[in-house]
Design goal:
This protein is mainly alpha-helical and 79 residues long. The chain is built from four helices and no strands. It is 70% helix and 0% strand. Helix 2 crosses helix 3 and helix 3 crosses helix 4.
Length: 79
């Protein structure tokens, strides 16, 4: 069965391929954390804008607990 890829997966795959290519063999670590950080901040910014800064609504849209959202907003200094 062929795996279906959405637009985010396609974008991420392309970005990671470019990232590793540009390293030119340089050692790299903690790629998972880097990717999560790079994606999570803009995700939170856009969802909060869409929810008109309503944290309850944003948490519901994201499918996470409101307290988790608050911690993430504080972490990224988006509160």
């Amino acid at each position: 069965m062929k795996e279906r890829k959405g637009p985010f997966a396609t974008c991420l795959k392309s970005a990671l391929e470019r990232y590793f290519h540009e390293l030119n063999g340089e050692k790299v670590t903690d790629v998972y954390s880097m990717v999560i950080t790079e994606m999570e901040r803009p995700l939170l910014e856009i969802v909060m804008r869409h929810a008109k800064s309503n944290q309850c609504k944003a948490a519901e849209i994201l499918g996470i607990n409101r307290n988790t959202l608050r911690k993430k907003l504080k972490h990224y200094k988006l509160n």
